[in-house]
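Blackboard transcription, Thursday session:
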Amino acid sequence: MTPHPARIIASDTGPPSADVPAAGFAPVDLYQRREKIFTRAVEGRFQRLRLYSGWPLLLGYLLLPWINWGSRQAVLFDLPTRHFYVFGITFWPQDFMLLAWLLIIAAFALFTFTSVVGRIWCGYTCPQTIWTAIFMWVEQVTEGPRHARIRLDAAPWNLEKLTRRGSKHALWLGWAFLTGFTFVGYFTPIRPLVGDIITLQVPTWAVAWIVFFTLATYINAGWLREQVCIYMCPYARFQSAMFDKDTLIVSYDAARGEPRGARKRDTRPEGVGDCVDCQLCVQVCPTGIDIRDGLQYECIGCAHCIDACDAIMHKVGYAPGLIRYTTEHALTGQATRVLRPRVLGYAAALTTMTALFMVALVNRDLVGIDVIRDRGDLFHVDHKRIRNDYTLKIINKTQQPQSFALTVTAAAVDDLEIDGPHTVDVDAGEVLTVPVSLMLDHDELETPYFDIDFRACDTAGHCNTEKSGFFGPTGS
Amino acid sequence: MSTAWSIFIVAGTLFSLIWALWLLLSNRSKSTPTVETTGHEFDGITEYDNPLPMWWVGLFIATIVFAAGYLVYYPGLGNFKGLGRWTSHDQLQQDVETKDAQFAPLYQSLAAMSEDELHQSHQAQQIGRRLFLNYCSTCHGVSARGGFGFPNLTDDERQWGDDFDSIKTTLRGGRNAAMASWEAALGGDSGTADMTQYVLSLSGAQHEAAAAARAAPQFQVFCTVCHGPEGKGNPLFGAPNLTNDIWLYGGDADAIAFTLRHGRAGQMPAFESILGEARIAIVAAYVSGLQRQ
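(Written on the board underneath:)
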């Protein structure tokens, strides 16, 4: 795509360097080099909105591992012991179905929100966007505004360039380290980890993961940036499937703006639209597109261009909203329908899944019981009594010590008796192994095998049952 | 493996590596800007002959470099042992040593405890139970109630003594219990049948008093050495008490007669080299605790 000649009314005089060709305008070369994008900083209501949405999420991410619950970290995914603590709940590997459900809920939430409000996730909440924004802010602080950065990039290496570039990368790495360290802090207690780092005694695996996530953050938010959204993110590729003409998009009002053209301040030549062709919407775009080319898959809905354009519209005395959140129906003068079948469908799926998830969460097993028959003889006969041996694994999934009552039932016989402990005490989060014998009078035996059910109940009445079987001698 | 197999594997491995590298480098189209088709066409769709992305080529070459380094360091080329001399046996040994070092303080602190303290310690009981399930339950069963030929560890009788030290000795060195065949000495079928009745009488089971009386003098001659004059057994020889209702090889007339006729050989393996002293103490305490329940 040939860039429009730069006719600039703002103070910035840099050429539009961001020029990723949009689909439909020119064939995209498979091997094109990445054009460097120098985004211009912008202020405005949507950027403030991003601050309000981004900061709580960011602080939540950074501070959550520091919260304690009782004597341990409130949110801790302890992989070696396979205990996943989330405040008062301990999840076990057996509860992984819940994670699958949670991810399904997240997916349907994404579908629902995408079909109504477009790529709000990308623009306001996606970590890639937030971290890139932080890195861009660092860039702004160390290397100066857009035109200074372009100059610096073209300048030969000297002390100033070295200092500015060096401090940028140092700050990037510092922030990336904080990110990686915090992430590892979700999997290994974060407070001792700080001491380990100070005394240089961090376990090897923790070091490896901290380095990995530090580098991943540094590379993603510092170097890859919009390329993650354009080339790597699957959501960016399939989100268009949820779009229709009633979906909220960031769009340039071509009917109002065209034909675009520069003009003297406070004048309005005949036959010219509202777009003063200042290129600011292009310069602020973190993915380097021109929103005026229409809806493009690269657009992450961040509304930088809206804020930039509104500021210019205000300056030249036009109404804001030449670039705005709107829908394709609204742009063509039709009514926008929010409640469409697809929205209702997604919302119904989301509601159903959420309700099912809550039910599953509340009703999840707090008692775990596994029964393993003895590997040796199927049965023993002692003094006219038939004995079968079992190993029970009783799991206390709660965070309090529990006392479990053990019972056994069988449809086939009446007097099956547990010879061994009838109650067992299990510590919080413990898997207790209990060998148990079952005794049956020889006279009671009618079949060589029958099904039995072991049952463990805590004092609050939470029970779990596990099937097994009882063998005995026949024909005697 | 034989030299021929070794050469075959070395040749095959090196050939496929070099072949893969050659295939990549020779067939790669290098002219970046030109876009030609391969000449393949399917339903009007033609296939571009685009050069491979550099990052992909780089990764491919990196894997080949890695493979070369791997084959030099690790044993992968036939009989070549690799410069690192790595073996799975050594790795296991290392892992075991690491874990042993990790658990040593715990085992030492538990091994220093008395029998009563070990009974009181929840941790010791848990470890003892797990060790028992791993090493002992194959014969004695998960419930430790044993089976035919394998003693029940929860009942009142311990052939080799029921004090803590005796149990530890049993675990350390194992035990061999030998009951000889007495059929000939007892005088064939009739003598064996009489002695069977006598043995039944010792535990108060139903028996023929006349037959038992006939065998009583023989018992004093042949059996008292190990089982004692009253048949109460002797832990020194592992001779079982015959006056209670606990039978390792069955307590009915047929089983007793079989034992008399053919003898019995019970064997408990030695666990000293497998478990080590600390864990032997923990298992011994678990086993002695079973009897007290």
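Lecturer's comment: Chain A touches chain B at residues 30-31, 372, 374-377, 380, 382-383, 387, 389-391, 419-420, 432-433, 435-437 (CB under 8 Å).
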